[in-house]
Amino acid sequence: xxxxxxxxxxxxxxxxxxxxxxxxxxxxxxxxxxxxxxxxxxxxxxxxxxxxxxxxxxxxxxxxxxxxxxxxxxxxxxxxxxxxxxxxxxxxxxxxxxxxxxxxxxxxxxxxxxxxxxxxxxxxxxxxxxxxxxxxxxxxxxxxxxxxxxxxxxxxxxxxxxxxxxxxxxxxxxxxxxxxxxxxxxxxxxxxxxxxxxxxxxxxxxxxxxxxxxxxxxxxxxxxxxxxxxxxxxxxxxxxxxxxxxxxxx
Length: 250
Ligand SMILES: NC(=O)c1ccc[n+]([C@@H]2O[C@H](COP(=O)([O-])OP(=O)(O)OC[C@H]3O[C@@H](n4cnc5c(N)ncnc54)[C@H](O)[C@@H]3O)[C@@H](O)[C@H]2O)c1
Description:
This protein is an alpha/beta fold. It has 2 domains: 8-181 and 217-242, NAD(P)-binding Rossmann-like Domain (Rossmann fold, 3-Layer(aba) Sandwich), CATH 3.40.50.720; 185-215, no CATH class. It contains 8 helices and 7 strands; from the N terminus they run βαβαβαβαβαβαααβ. It has a 7-stranded parallel β-sheet, with helices on both faces. Strand 5 (131-136), helix 5 and strand 6 form a beta-alpha-beta unit. The site of nicotinamide-adenine-dinucleotide has 28 residues, from helix 1 and helix 6.
């Protein structure tokens, strides 16, 4: 018996990186996983490999998120776990030089997308008297960084929104938490480093970022996510858990 035996889990952004790692681990622990993403081909491949299903979604579009939730609920009869994980980093620029388009896009995906996911899944979880929501924030949502105003604000928003929704829905036995990785070696980070003037220097800098040696791995984030969506954390709600090798303690 796995830790998630018989559970239905929807994971957004599951065609790549952290979402993919979580989808694979949740499935290996017995969950039936709905792999939800913009990327159809990669998403279908992963869904097939883990015995789940694929759902095309644009988390920045409320109708698309509503469709993802209602299709998953119709197909499986319930949704036990929703991981709102899809996100982008956006452009790197100081606020004065940043564009309105970048602000709107990053907030639409990283923050509005999390709100839509919760808004549309909560009626199902309230009706079934329970459920678990895990939202991927970032250490950047706890400790601000420069030159990423939209990303920082969106991730801080995810942390606070998660806590607010957790308090509001605790009476329904719905737990809501945020997970806050520091820099994780994923395709998002590879692209981020490739856009920097000195990618190799950036990589070395990120290796030294956390008090624990090395970068956070996708597997480490997935194991922490498994803890937060399984009964192992049955009385934990409204937390923003750093997975950061001690980074935010400084
Ligand atoms: N990599 C890091 O260093 C790091 C650190 C902290 C937090 N995070 C967060 O973790 C989450 C996953 O990041 P990752 O590093 O795995 O990135 P990734 O780029 O590898 O994966 C992100 C996935 O989200 C999907 N996606 C993007 N926009 C979407 C949209 N509008 N609708 C549906 N799907 C969409 C992409 O297609 C992709 O499959 C993000 O929220 C990110 O902000 C990443």
